[in-house]
Structure formats: C-alpha cells, structure tokens
Amino acid sequence: ERLNQKEGSWVQVHGGVIKAQHFRVKGLVMNEKYCFRVIAKNAAGIRSKPCDPTPLVICKDEIIHPKVSLDYSVKDKTEVFVNKPFDIGAAVSGKPDPE
Predict the structure, then answer these.
(1) pTM (2 decimals)?
(2) What would the pLDDT profile of 36-69 be if each residue is shown by its tens digit?
(3) Which residues are CB-contacts of 33 (< 8 A; sequence separation ≥ 6)?
(4) pLDDT (tens digit per residue) in 15-44
C-alpha cells in the first residue's frame, strides 16, 4: 500500500500474490513524496496487520549515462562485404534503459 498524502488514506498498489521480496509500484509521480507499507495474506486468505510504514521517499529516476561496450576481439576474424549488412555486437547499458 502507499499513503495518499492529500487524503491521508492508504491505497492498495497490488491485489495479487507477490512471491518475490520486491515489487515495482507503477503510477508514481516524479518528485512526489510517498510512504509504503506491506500487508501479508496467507493461503487461507487471512491478512496480517500492516508493517510500520517506510520513511517518506521521493520518487526520482536514477540516471546513469549510456555506456557502450564493444567486443574488439572479433576485428581480426570478421569479413565485411561492400553493400552488405554488417552487424556489430555491443552491450549497451544505462538508466533509464537506452533505446
């Protein structure tokens, strides 16, 4: 659940089962402040009391500049032909994900 700061009420952010120990909450607004809490539900459908809420967190994108890594070991083994497509394998990373 997340706290609706304007209304002071808790809003459910997921209705299903989450087996992982993490969950990405969608629909957050950039630079807004949020509190979160978790409620567990067992196989019989019995819900726990909510855990203590998190401290206020600010919704921000983590920005990591794009980085390209090429495998230069193929340069001595590659043949390139005029007017033919040529694919180069490269690893591209960054946040948000580069296009």
Answers:
(1) 0.58
(2) 999 988 889 899 999 999 999 998 888 888 888 8
(3) 5, 56, 57, 58, 59
(4) 888 888 888 898 888 888 999 999 988 889
Q: Output DSSP code: residue 84.
A: S
**Is the separation of the CB atoms in 93 and 64 below 8 Å?**
yes
Q: Which amino acid, one-letter code, is at 78?
A: T
**DSSP one-letter string for 1-55:** -EEETTTTEEE-S--S---SS--PPPS--TT-EE-B----B-TT-PBPPPPPPPP
Identify the CA nearest to 13 among candidates 67, 60, 50. Answer: 50
* Residue that has been written with the tokens 């209304």 in this structure: 7
How far apart, in whole angstroms, are the C-alpha atoms of residue 19 and residue 39? 13
Q: Is the pLDDT of residue 94 over 90?
A: no
